[in-house]
Amino acid sequence: MPFTLEQFLDVFKKYNQAVFPMQAVFYLISLIAIDLTIKRYPKSDKTISIILAFFWLWMGIVYHLIFFSTINKAAYLFGALFILQGVLFFYFGVFRNKLSFKLGRNIDVYEISGIILFIFALIVYPVIGYFFGHIYPSSPTFGLPCPTTIFTFGLLLLNIRKCPVIILIIPFLWSIVGFTAALQFGIFEDSGLLISGLIATSLLIYRNRILSQKFRRM
């Protein structure tokens, strides 16, 4: 790592102090996204896709390019990839209508996994961090890459259409890169990032195969 744990936590501190009270806004937006998967409206799918695009553009521009780049020049690459991911969500979800999110249609492994990831990203993640001494503002809050990537996987698991594989690549790669923080710096809450990436990506690719087989039989 080209930076120390102290420098890493200081970036969180500077970020959280600078963007406050956006952390609360992000929680509100995430709850709106979940609500839209339950209470279906004509523009629910596009609105959720816009929310995902906003999260990834925010992380790419604000966190990576403005804050994280001060201690790690690789943040410029990360920022570009996160911005690209935001564009992909906007393209496939808003322009191509390839994403349709529904919660409560039937209880299956996808919905259960999605709900678990929501709970982990919004509640369990900060609780684990607190018990390991990562106290606000020197802590990764929701709206930062790791917990927000977990939340993203949760939403994608609720997509009932064939998921474009290209929108899984960057979140999955980040689940590996971000997990290194858990190994290098003892940020154990990030362990859930790799687990969520492996589980969600595997389930989504498997469901794509099932949907493709059903389509061929029609």
Describe the fold and architecture.
The chain is mainly alpha-helical and 218 residues long. The chain has one domain. 73% of the residues lie in helices and 0% in strands. It contains eight helices and no strands. The longest helix has 27 residues. The model has no long low-confidence stretch (mean pLDDT 94).
Alpha-carbon Rg, integer: 17 Å
Flag low-confidence runs: none
Whole-number count of domains: 1
Strand count, sense and closure of the main sheet?
none
User: Order of SSEs, N→C?
Assistant: HHHHHHHH
Give the overall shape.
globular
Mean pLDDT: 94
* Oligomeric category: single chain
Fraction of helical residues: over 70%
What is the fold's blueprint, element by element?
Blueprint: H1 5-19, H2 22-38, H3 44-67, H4 75-95, H5 109-131, H6 145-156, H7 166-185, H8 191-217
Helix pairs in contact: 2-3, 3-4, 4-7, 5-6, 5-8, 6-7, 6-8, 7-8
Which key terms come to mind for this protein?
218 residues, single chain, mainly alpha, globular
